Prior knowledge:
Helix content is about 85%, strand content about 0%. By secondary structure, it is mostly helical. About 25% of the residues are buried.
Amino acid sequence: MRVEPAVNQAAADPGTLTGGRAGTAARWRQPLAHLVFLAITLGTWEHASKQGWLSATFFGQPSGIARFLWDNIADGKLWSDLGWTLAGTGLAFALGACAAIGVGLAFVRMPALERFLEPYFSALNVMPRIALAPLFILWFGLGLGSKVAIGFSLTFFIVLSATVAGMRGISADHVTLCRTLGARPAQLFFSVTLPGAVPVLFSGLRLGLIYALLGVVGGEIIASEKGLGQALAYLSSTFNVNGVMALLLVLALLGVSVMRSMTWLEKRMLHWQ
Length: 273
């Protein structure tokens, strides 16, 4: 029996090549559409500013925003403020998430403790924590400590709710079966409870990281020595709209990067699904 070469088979079936080209075109279609949309938007914005249809004093100008970013990247000011904000966000998120997961595990293991503390935690949760920023600044000073405290207070309750919901969402039949088969508590936690709670837990961690960033930046806007929020407050007070728009762009890109990183980590943790 004669076997045709793969090249001849592809030539005999032009749909294969057509499908490959169609898949490649579909992959590039959306990024190109975004580029075209951004080019049109920025071009229209720049033209309207130059023609005086939009006041550059109040709305800024794309060329001015790009110039501000270039100057601040070149002299290192932007990197210094960005590092300060990222350090505060990382510390606030790490401390808040670890504390919330620990308390959440205690609540799952000891429901009586949760029932006792629930009224106090509910009262603290509904309190607008950004209103506590002046107290945090008074207690921890203008440095990084007060910003970490604000971010911690915002992260803690979000991750706590996700931890409790994730742990209690585990199938009771799976837990009973593992206990029947002789699984030890540590094995039960690491092999059944934790993997089953990861999807819900990561939803809380992703949101908690964003709120840690919001808390740190909000605290920097109120009062700070350094950081993107402090630079944002200074630029707005001096009516430097191009600088304000540039830092808002940096914060938006930072938030998107944080979300993408957490999504990637979640997929790595859930590779077994």
